[in-house]
């Protein structure tokens, strides 16, 4: 039996945004056996704190987005008040560094700050935990408390850049609707860190390719080995940072991407150690389960950069992640928006192209999972593009739901009298730039073949014996097909015999 002081989960705080028109929970901890009363504008819910010291109450949907509410919580002795609680659209943005990339580093930060207008935007940055290995056990340590913030010019630098531009677009589409963003990210993470350990172990391939290699590495090394590897890694990082500093000092006008192409990437990933946050399942337990009682309208996932070594199973990882999160949030139809990776060159050949194809594949298998391709953006030699405005506003437009729910994707492939017809979704009239070409694989050679556009289809006569077709299938694709809104057709690789993505 656990006993705590009466409190709410950290994500519930003053200034929070709860989803309008959707039932929601308020949850926390307290003394086991006590009754908690939660009063939200005269609607009262009561519950008894369970043996684990946890409590939660569920409220029916509230549609009033025009005013602020107050939430009062008490157990007969202690009393909590949450102020300025509003209802609106709540977006979860999650993944690794590119979605967590803050406005302070965005190339347009200065102009956005200078032209900042009071906006109906609120944000919550989920705390990033540390892991401590002591006496043969890994413990989670969260160094600071966080809370909801109303976006102001003074705190703009702390918000995710992509999330800011997306929220900005959402507010433009519906000025009376408050937008709340929950940012749950960690730099350099593998998809497996965001999936429950039980799910990883239940999937034989994920167990063999993800979990067991990590565990075998831990068994094969001593504490002295870990200390030596960490020391060596820190020295390599220090040497890299020093080279980068000296290069930028000597070449102040050179872009960061060009500097990285000369100096090289910072060493990554760090060594495998017992307290690594890259442990399979670590962030699902330490971050996702910390916000499991919150309710979201939509979730955005932007990750894949760190999975170049096991890109072949990325579809299984992403499939498992979405199902795990929907289960954790008890929201089995929660819409997910998967950001397809941008362009980047300094990775093994076609590894990012393969991950993009796997991302596309998952959106065609799971219901309410949408693709937002940004493969026409990015920097060839910088894995962290500093221009986030176009990406964020494209995302915001799609989240708003006033047009297409996805960027254009391949829907089906049919063959008829020597012709191959590619049909696309989320486009009425395909727009071409620099011509219309799709590559075909014949006799183990790829050949670009021109196609004929007819509204949402492309007709091509491939050479006899062509077995596969691809478009934009490169780490740094040159995309030539777009919909009417300027969104790119997502790159793909397809088997022409089965019509299925490879």
From TrEMBL:
Q: Which GO terms describe its biological process?
A: carbohydrate metabolic process
Keyword Chaperone on this protein?
no
Q: Which Gene3D superfamilies match?
A: SGNH hydrolase
This protein's record includes keyword RNA-binding = no
What the entry lists under InterPro entries is as follows: SASA, SGNH_hydro_sf, SIAE
* Sequence ranges assigned to domain Sialate O-acetylesterase in this UniProt record: 277-375
Molecular-function GO term, any one: sialate O-acetylesterase activity
Q: Which Pfam families would you find in this protein's record? A: SASA
Keywords, ordered alphabetically: Hydrolase
- Identification of the protein by name: Sialate O-acetylesterase
């Amino acid at each position: 039996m656990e006993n705590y002081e009466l409190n709410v989960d950290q994500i519930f705080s003053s200034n929070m945004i709860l989803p309008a028109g959707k039932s929601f929970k308020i949850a926390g901890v307290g003394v086991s056996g006590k009754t908690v009363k939660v009063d939200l504008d005269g609607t009262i819910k009561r519950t008894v704190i369970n043996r684990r010291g946890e409590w939660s109450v569920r409220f029916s949907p509230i549609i009033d987005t025009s005013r602020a509410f107050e939430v009062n919580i008490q157990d007969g002795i202690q009393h909590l008040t949450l102020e300025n609680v509003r209802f609106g659209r709540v977006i979860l943005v999650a993944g690794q560094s590119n979605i967590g990339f803050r406005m302070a580093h965005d190339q347009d930060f200065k102009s956005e700050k200078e032209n900042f207008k009071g906006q109906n935007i609120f944000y919550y940055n989920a705390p990033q935990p540390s892991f401590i290995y002591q006496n043969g056990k890994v413990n989670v340590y969260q160094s600071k408390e966080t809370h909801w913030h109303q976006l102001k010019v003074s705190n703009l630098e702390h918000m995710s850049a992509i999330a800011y531009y997306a929220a900005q677009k959402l507010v433009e589409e519906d000025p009376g609707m408050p937008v709340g963003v929950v940012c749950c990210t960690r730099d350099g993470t593998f998809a497996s860190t965001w999936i429950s350990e039980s799910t990883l172990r239940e999937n034989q391939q994920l167990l063999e390719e993800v979990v067991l290699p990590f565990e075998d590495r831990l068994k094969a090394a001593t504490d002295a080995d870990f200390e030596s590897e960490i020391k060596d890694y820190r020295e390599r990082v220090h040497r890299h940072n020093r080279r980068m500093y000296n290069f930028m000092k000597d070449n102040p006008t050179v872009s960061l991407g060009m500097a990285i192409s000369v100096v090289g990437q910072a060493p990554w990933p760090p060594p495998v150690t017992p307290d690594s946050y890259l442990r399979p399942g670590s962030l699902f337990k330490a971050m996702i389960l910390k916000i499991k009682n919150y309710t979201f309208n939509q979730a955005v996932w932007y990750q894949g950069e760190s999975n170049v070594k096991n890109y072949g199973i990325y579809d299984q990882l992403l499939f498992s992640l979405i199902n795990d999160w929907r289960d954790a949030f008890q929201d089995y139809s929660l819409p997910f928006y998967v950001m397809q990776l941008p362009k980047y060159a300094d990775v093994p050949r076609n590894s990012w192209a393969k991950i993009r194809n796997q991302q596309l594949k998952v959106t065609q298998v799971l219901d309410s999972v949408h693709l937002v391709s940004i493969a026409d953006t990015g920097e060839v030699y910088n894995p962290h593009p500093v221009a986030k405005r176009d990406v964020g506003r494209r995302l915001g437009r799609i989240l708003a739901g006033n047009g297409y729910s996805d960027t254009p994707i391949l829907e089906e492939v049919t063959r008829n009298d020597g012709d191959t017809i590619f049909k696309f979704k989320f486009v009425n009239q395909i727009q071409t730039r620099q011509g219309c070409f799709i590559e075909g694989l014949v006799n183990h050679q790829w050949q670009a073949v021109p196609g004929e556009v007819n509204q949402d289809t492309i007709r091509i006569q491939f050479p006899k014996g062509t077995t596969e077709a691809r478009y934009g299938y490169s780490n740094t694709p040159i995309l030539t097909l777009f919909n009417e809104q300027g969104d790119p057709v997502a790159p793909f690789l397809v088997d022409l015999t089965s019509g299925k993505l490879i």
